[in-house]
Amino acid sequence: MATQVEARTYKNYIDGQWVDSTTGETFPNINPATGEVLGYFPKSGKADIDRAVAAAQRAFARWRAVPAPRRAEILFRAGELLVQRKEEYARGMSLEMGKVLKEARGDVQEAIDMTYFMAGEGRRLYGHTTPSELPDKLCLTFRMPIGVVAAITPWNFPMAIPSWKLMPALIAGNTVVFKPSTWTPQSAYNLIAVLEEAGLPPGVVNLVFEREVGVSQYLVEHPGVSLVSFTGSTATGTAIATICARQNKRYSLELGGKNAVIVLADADLDLAMDGIVWSAFGTTGQRCTAASRIIVERPLVEEVQRRLVERARALRLGSGVDPQTDVGPVINEEQLKKIRGYMDIGRAEGARLLCGGEIARDGDLGRGYFFQPTVFADVRPDMRIAQEEIFGPVTDIIPVDSPEEAVRVNNATPYGLVTSVFTRDVTKAMRAVEGITTGLVYVNAGTIGAEVHLPFGGTRNTGNGHREGGIGALDVFTEWKTVYIDYSGRLQKAQIDVA
Ligand code: NAD
C-alpha cells in the first residue's frame, strides 16, 4: 500500500539558517517498500562542511559558557516537542527506512528518553572531590566540553542513534556537525527542526546532508573537528579510526555485531521462540543487536527448527506503515544483493536452508527491497554465515553439546555486542553471564531491548571500548580537568613533603 507524500526539497542547517548546499544539487530520499520519492535533500560538498564546522567553532565559545542547567532547559523543550510529534515522525521514519510503525515509534521514543535523560544530567555532570595528601589543599575535578563534535550515523535507527550522540554532546557544552545517513535524511531533519524550535542558539548544531562518502570523510579529517562520534559498519569505523589516530583526534566507534540467542536444554521454549523471532526478524534483521545465530543445546534443536520455520513462514512482509506488516523491506538494493549473496555462501559451506533464502517479489513486494525471512540449519560456528554480519532477516541454528560449549561458540566471533540466554536454572544463567564476553547480556529476553540509562556498546570489533547511553556516555563527550587549590600559604610539594 503506497502512501503518497509530497516530494519536498529540504536544506542543510548551518549557523541557525536553513540553506541550500553549495553544489546546488540534491538527491532523492526513496521509500524502500515502494520506490517512491519522499523528498529531495542537498548533495553537499566540502565547502558546506567547511561552513558548518566554522559555525560550530564560533558557537563553541558561547555555548560552553551557558550554565549546563540552562542548556538542559532547551533539551527538555526538545523532548516535549518530540513527544507531541511522535506519531508524525514515526510515520516519516517508517516510510523512509521501512521499519514497521510500532518499531518506528520505539525509535522516536528512544530519542525522547535520551533527550530527557541527558537533560537531567544538566543538573549533575558530577565531578569528584577528594582529600589531598597535603594539608590545606583541595582537590577536585570538572568535566570540560571537547569542542566541535562530528556525529556520523547509520540508517537503521534514524532518530535514536543521532540522539545518543547529540544529547550528551550538547548537555556537556560541545557544538555539533551532524552528518546523518544518506538513506534516512528525513528523520535527521525532524530531530534538528525540534532542537531549533526548542531554542538552540545558531551554530550549536549544524546539519549537513551528503551523497558522497568523500564529503563525510572530509568532515572526519577536518582540523576544526575535535571528536568524531561514529556508529556504522566496522569497515567504516576502522577507516575513521585510522584518520583520527593520525591527528590525535578523539573518536568513539559503535560498530557491527554477530549476536546470539543461546537456548539451553531446560529453557522455557515458548518464551525463547518469542525472543528469537523478535530478535532475528524485528527491524528486518537490520539491527546491530539482531540475533543472527541461535545456539541450541542438542536435545532442543529439532523442536527449535520446527517452530522457528513455522513462525518465520507466517511473518507478513510489506510496507512498514501497513498495520498488517510484520517485516518491512531492507534499506536498499545493495543490501538486498548482499543478503542474497550470503545464501550462496551458506549453501556452499554446507548449511541447510530451512526456509526463505530468496528475494520476495510477489505482488507489490516487487516494487521494493524485500527478502524472505530465512533460517539456516546445520551451521558450524566457523562458517562465514556464522561469523560475518549479514544485516538482514537471516538467522542460523548452531547445535552445541553443553552450556559451556554454547558460551565458547558465542564468544568466538570478531564481534562482541549482545548475547541472550534462555534457561530456567539460575546457576546456569549466572555461569553463562560470567563467561559471556559481549558488552550486553540478556537472561530470558531477546537480544533487543537496551534502555538509555545503561551503558550500550560492545567488545572486540564492535567498537573501541567506549559506551553510549548511561552516564558513561559523558566520558566520550568530555575531558576531565583536575584542579588543585592550595590555601596553606607556602609551596607544598606532593610526593616530596612527606613526614
Ligand atoms: P556505514 O558504515 O556504511 O555508514 C555509516 C555512516 O558513515 C553513514 O552516515 C555513512 O554515510 C558514513 N560513512 C560511510 N563511509 C564513510 C567514510 N569513509 N568516512 C566517513 N563517513 C563515512 O554503515 P550503515 O550501513 O549506515 O549502518 C549499518 C552498520 O551500522 C551495521 O554494521 C550495524 O551493525 C552498525 N550499527 C552499529 C550500532 C552499534 O551501536 N554498535 C548501532 C546501529 C548500527
Low-confidence stretches: none
**CATH domain class of the largest domain:** Alpha Beta
How many domains in all? 2
Silhouette: globular
* Helix-strand category: alpha/beta
- Heteromolecules bound: nicotinamide-adenine-dinucleotide
CATH architectural group of the largest domain: 3-Layer(aba) Sandwich
| Rg on CA atoms, Å | 24 Å
Query: What oligomeric state best describes the polypeptide chains here?
Result: single chain
Number of E-state strands: 22
The name of the CATH topology of the largest domain is Aldehyde Dehydrogenase, Chain A, domain 1
Beta-sheet strand percentage?
Answer: 15-25%
At the fourth level of CATH, the homologous superfamily of the largest domain is Aldehyde Dehydrogenase, Chain A, domain 1
| Mean of residue pLDDT values | 97
What is the count of helical runs? 15
In a few lines, what is going on in this structure?
By secondary structure, the protein is of the alpha/beta class. It has helices at 46-65, 68-84, 86-97, 101-121, 160-171, 185-197, 213-221, 234-246, 269-281, 301-314, 333-348, 384-387, 403-411, 426-435, 473-477, and strands spanning 8-9, 12-14, 17-19, 26-30, 37-42, 129-131, 137-145, 148-152, 175-179, 205-207, 227-231, 250-254, 259-263, 291-297, 352-355, 374-377, 394-400, 415-416, 418-422, 440-443, 459-460, 478-486. It is built from 15 helices and 22 strands.
